[in-house]
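Box 4.2: Ligand-aware structure prediction
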Amino acid sequence: MERYKLQKCALCGLEKEIQLSHIIPKFIGKHLKKTSIGSIRSAENPNIVIQDLEKHYLLCRDCEEEFSARENWFARNIFYLWKKEETIEFEYDSNLNYFIISLSWRSLYLDIMNYVQEGNVEIEKFQIMIDAEKMMRKFLLGKDEDLGNIENHIFFFERVESVNDDKFLLNPNTTIHRSTVSYTHYTEDTVFTVSNLMGIIIVTMYEKGYREEWKGTKIDRNRGKIIAANQNVKSVVCGEFQYWMEEADKQMERMSETQKAKIVQKMKAIGEDIKKYDIYQDFLDDQNIKKNSSI
Ligand SMILES: [Zn+2]
């Protein structure tokens, strides 16, 4: 995807100097790098992403600051606490809803531009996206509280140790905990933006089909508590998880023998210290799935 450079701020519409904005918050990219095993990163995070750590000239400094204040809130109050396994219960206020809307809006905005360029979209679904984008923009600017039927959900992708569906045998832990992605997609009756922030799956639903079941995932506008346990999701969005795993697997297969040898060498050099890396647990869990799952 090409990098967009706008003359006006995509949010407030003012002709101010436009900043280079991240689609996925910058702190996520930093955390991914910091917890990776140096140059073997390409193996654990096989670039399955579409808008990975992509940047675009999108927002003015003032709008960017509004967004980054909420990103910091999310980083401090949810992301790091969950990643460091300090808690699974998170009290939240309106900052969380704002953060999710800002993340999904950025992604949706760019996807709408892509759809316009490529013209490969169902017109009814496209209209739903256009209406949602407008409503979210007004909300983010503080002009209108109304978000219509838009729903926000957070699903924590916990450690998977066994599965009863062979679709999930493809390294779910390493793939989902070690990657980021954000994009808009639709099916027959559901339109959504999904983002994976290293295992925290954030979904904004613009249209929700009658078969969708989301338990323990919905985020209220103002305040509430979200618990990273016993969540239950039956959704077309789950098909995306499978797609990410398949893509990661293909990427691994495409890796050259030289590259693979380099990784093995690097891991040997790290030796026992490998246990200190987050990916080690993910790796073990994925191995266990293959052992434990009686498929
Ligand atoms: Zn602006």
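In the box above, the bound molecule is zinc ion. The chain has a mean pLDDT of 87.
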